[in-house]
Amino acid sequence: MPKEQILDSLFKISEDIARRLPENEGTTNAYMFNRYSFKALVMRYALFNQRYELAARLAKEIIDSHKYELHPVYGDLFNYKADKTNKEFIMKFDMESHDNSATNSFRDLAPQYRSGNGQSYVVPTKALVDSYWTLQGRPIDQCPLYTKEEYELNPKLNRDPRYAMSIMGHGDLFYGEEINIYNPDNPMYHENLRASRSGYWFRKFVDEADAFRSGGNMHFPLLRYAEVLLTYAEAKIMLNDIDDLAKQCINDIRRRAGLDMTVADVTLENRTQQEWLKLLQNERRIELAGEGLRYEDIIRWRIAEEVLNQPALGHTRMVNGQKVTLKIEDRKFLPHQYLWPFHESTLKVEPGLRQNPG
Do residues 105 and 218 make contact, with C-beta atoms less than 8 angstroms apart? Predict the structure, then answer.
């Protein structure tokens, strides 16, 4: 059966399911689907499968429901200040959803500090750091205030505030101590076994309260209201029907982040469809950084040959008058890797199925 025919059936069934679900989140079992959280999940996969009209309609239904809102302080969503009290998490991985077993985001993401738990398993790279545009909403290589090199050498210089709320690195404070990734006596020295080879770490989901505890009780977003706003905007851009609401969605996210809206307001200049798409793609990348959506976005936007065929790099500094950047590894992406291979057992069960190229 053709893929599009299967999707037609699945999307039709999903909307019927949504109508049957309770309208509001429960006071208990809040992690379970309600009508609008299920619509949000369907919305995501409608976008991923180029069903832009459906994605935009579902996003607008969620917006018009007024069930959710952007939390006023972006950074508080990802620590104990607001992980349990915000109205932005639509789908969530809360404590009840896993029988109150301990969470380990600090262990997996944080720097190793003294006898603490950090393992630095997943860390940001220079590519992500450089993708944070300026406070005025400009790419760092298109800003008249500073040069690209100045931005590379000082990632917090005139930067989108989401950078400092999402990422930490050389010169920042962690647990009251300055991070020095180049000092072998510093616990965050980049060559240490449990340190970050890029010299950067995520602040998201890393709360210092968990530094010396055996586990945490963090609630994690699986889908946030910000994604709904970005989905509406992207779907309308792809339909080349960029209305006032699409622009407002982007502005609302930028305003909440703390950008200088006298310049960063997207209504202040005209853009082509491709320019709108480039802006939206970067906005989505930094707004949702570290939340598990980037790889799927790279694949569906078909930009993997561009962004995954580059070395993974880290922190940049000046050494004897020369700009030096930490290198983690070379990376390579081939065109056939857009599709995963079928398992051998699947091919035996379905003899008419052909293996994907590669």
Answer: yes
Tens of pLDDT, residue by residue over 98-112, are: 999 999 999 999 987
Of 78, 25, 39, the closest CA to residue 288 belongs to: 78
Long-range contacts of 148-151 (CB under 8 A, 24+ apart): 149/323
Calpha distance 300→303 (Å, rounded) = 8
Nearest-5° Cα angle at 53, 52 to 58: 95
Alpha helices in 216-293 (DSSP H): 225-238, 244-257, 261-264, 273-287
**3-state SS class at 70:** coil
pLDDT in tens, 192-219: 988 999 999 999 999 999 988 888 999 9
Domains of the chain, CATH where assigned: 3-96+220-288 (1.25.40.390)
Q: How far apart are CA 247 and CA 267, in angstroms?
A: 7
